[in-house]
Write a structure and sequence with these properties.
CATH architecture of the largest domain: 3-Layer(aba) Sandwich
CATH superfamily of the largest domain: Glycogen Phosphorylase B
CATH class of the largest domain: Alpha Beta
Structural class: alpha/beta
Largest sheet: 7 strands, parallel
Strand order of the largest sheet: 3-2-1-4-5-6-7
Number of domains: 2
Strand content: 15-25%
Distance between the termini: 10 Å
Number of strands: 13
Number of helices: 16
Helix content: 40-55%
Radius of gyration: 21 Å
């Protein structure tokens, strides 16, 4: 059986979830990933994925009508899996379903309208009038009302399940690949220039709703000259550095996006991983994928009480209120002062990840849905 996975933008972090689904399914099916690329490139962390990709140029309307037809013409899987509730993935998949009769599975891992709604009244008005963007607000608003036309739905968190229904399939990780026992932390730190330093790490594109500004404020409050902040995923290093206080800038290391096959090595140097999500319309409908990376690597985690983070992490980490740099700073200081306790929590986080959020769990859940929509038993 062949599965065609539709990604709404191959050049963005949307590829993270689409790629994860593809990897999970590739053990059992012939899998391909199809979609437009806004930058005409593949998202850097997944550029080395060993799965066939059919990439198309992204254009605004009216040009995208031609691109959409090309995408629909190459969808030849027995089952279509649309990653994200977006017009250039689910919208195209729905049209293909109608024209071909192929079953359609929809996977939702973010509340896409939430990203539009944070911009205030006039911002929403302006975005709603953006009719030339194939993934503009008016089209996303419309596509959200067509969820029931999918043959089955999977979601990554409780917020989305309450809103759209469907099967809960959280982000998962291959805990055999993300394994701290593969690395000597001291050796890797020395090789990266962090010998003798404590590393506080932030992983992911540092957008405001991810709490990067709160983390920078908290870092300034922590009284420890050996503590370095490593931020991985910055697209424009020079621009980002302009926003960092002079008093700590010499202890901040900026690293661009890294490929997934290097992720475990970089994570191995972290003494603390911080996930300081704010509670906004951007974040309430998502669960940070980097939480599962940190858990798989057995790292002490400080995160905020947002979305499903408390449920996923359980008592295997440290929770603080969102948008509270003082609480965050106190938690960082506490972990530094109680390293043995933090290490135990990190080990417990890895054990919890292996039990509940290993990629085998995702494989099982996805196969069940594929079997459901295909209408036949999977061998």
């Amino acid at each position: 059986m062949k599965i065609s996975i539709l990604c709404f933008d191959l050049s963005s972090n949307a590829f993270g979830r689409a790629g994860l689904l593809a990897i999970a399914l590739s053990k059992f099916y012939d899998v391909e990933i199809i979609g437009p690329s806004k930058s005409e490139k593949i998202w850097a962390p997944m550029a080395q994925i060993d799965i066939p990709i059919k990439k198309f140029v992204w254009e605004r309307y009216p040009g995208f009508h031609r691109i959409k037809k090309k995408i629909m013409d190459v969808i030849d899987g027995d089952v279509i899996l649309a990653s994200k509730l977006m017009p250039t993935s689910f919208g195209i998949g729905l049209q293909k379903k109608i024209s071909s009769g192929k079953p359609l599975l929809l996977d939702i891992d973010d509340w896409e309208l939430g990203f539009f709604y944070h911009s205030g009244f006039w911002g929403k008005v302006g975005r709603f009038l953006n009719f030339s963007n194939p993934n503009g607000l008016p089209y996303v608003w419309r596509i959200e009302r067509l969820v029931d036309h999918a043959d089955a739905v999977s979601v990554s968190n409780r917020f989305l399940q309450n809103k759209f229904g469907g099967s809960l399939l959280p982000h998962c990780r291959d805990t055999d690949v993300l394994n701290p026992l593969k690395f000597n932390t001291g050796d890797v730190k020395e090789r990266m220039g962090f010998a003798g330093k404590k590393i506080l790490m932030f992983l992911g594109t540092p957008r405001p709703h991810k709490g990067i500004d709160d983390l920078l404020q908290a870092f300034k409050k922590v009284d420890n000259s050996d503590l370095n902040l490593v931020i991985i995923g910055v697209e424009n290093k020079q621009e980002f550095l302009k926003g960092i206080d002079e008093s700590v800038i010499n202890r901040v290391t900026i690293i661009p996006k890294i490929p997934f096959n290097k992720l475990s090595e970089y994570l191995s140097v972290a003494d603390i991983i911080s996930i300081p999500q704010r509670r906004t319309s951007d974040s309430v409908g998502q669960i940070p994928a980097r939480l599962f990376d940190a858990m798989a690597m057995g790292k002490p985690i400080i995160a905020t009480r947002v979305s499903d983070i408390p449920e996923v992490l359980g008592d295997c980490g440290y929770l603080v209120d969102p948008s509270n740099p003082s609480q965050l700073a106190n938690a960082i200081q506490y972990v530094l002062n109680h390293s043995d306790e933090a290490r135990v929590k990190g080990d417990a986080a890895r054990a919890r990840c292996r039990q509940k959020y290993d990629i085998r769990n995702l494989e099982s859940g996805l196969r069940g849905l594929i079997e459901q929509v295909a209408g036949k038993k999977v061998n």
